[in-house]
Amino acid sequence: MLELRDINKSYSSIPAVEGVSFAARPGEVTGYLGANGSGKSTTMKIITGLIEASSGGVFYQGKSIHGDLMSFRRILGYVPEEPHLYMHLSGMEYLVMVAQLRNMERKAASSRIHGLLHLFGLHADRDLSLSSYSKGMRQKILLIAALMHNPGLVLLDEPFSGLDVGSSLILRSLIQELASRGKVVLFSSHELETVERVCSHIIILHRGKIVADDSIGHLRELMSVPTLEGIFSQLAVEQDSAAISREIADLIHA
Ligand SMILES: Nc1ncnc2c1ncn2[C@@H]1O[C@H](COP(=O)(O)OP(=O)(O)OP(=O)(O)O)[C@@H](O)[C@H]1O
């Protein structure tokens, strides 16, 4: 189980996340939702140890991740929202480099990489440089890099970004398959329809604070709203979309 206990993070004394505590359990897909700037990526980076919380702790299987960050990272698979890829490398070279950094056995890693490239439809492009890949192709490389070592904890920050319909359908099923095999899966997305289909449990952040932590079914009942979009709008959307869109159209029309 992954647990966050009272996480606070400020940038130049401006709070980005405040008092964030939740648990993500094996076998469940936990959706992490919130408007732009609500603190989702900040939380994800704190879980990976990429940035440090101002206070609070992250625990995996009951132990602080900072006790042995290297071992924790070996069981972690992370797809970042804003990746830093080495664009001069080919897809294949990049994945081999990631496998080496993870100390994966060379032959086993190679056969796993070839297999995953085939399944993600990228095998024919494996020797092209990442700079020539489309956004969706790069996203698939990031997914392969995050999953090829069979991580126990899977963190996906906007994983559907750039994927076409067919690939999104595969990823949807894959996320559920990974959870059903006992992994802890935490994923953030703005695609509420996908979240509604895939997640057993959702957490909604609003301005850095958790405003919901429950199953979608229970939230529907509690709030008497039939859809996740309705729940999200009540808890985390403050503006009147129709009024703003009219103002934008008026402004450009003037
Ligand atoms: N490196 C940084 N320096 C200063 N402020 C930051 C930094 N990174 C994030 N923030 C601020 O922290 C807050 C939360 O940002 P974060 O990227 O976590 O939001 P998010 O929920 O992932 O948003 P989005 O949906 O747009 O990706 C925002 O107010 C943002 O401006």
Automatic annotation (TrEMBL):
All residue ranges annotated as the ABC transporter domain in the record: 2-232
Origin superkingdom: Bacteria
Originating organism: Edaphobacter acidisoli
GO molecular function: ATP binding; ATP hydrolysis activity
UniProt-recorded name of the protein: ABC transporter ATP-binding protein
Entry keyword set: ATP-binding, Nucleotide-binding, Transport
UniProt xrefs under PROSITE patterns: ABC_TRANSPORTER_1 (PS00211), ABC_TRANSPORTER_2 (PS50893)
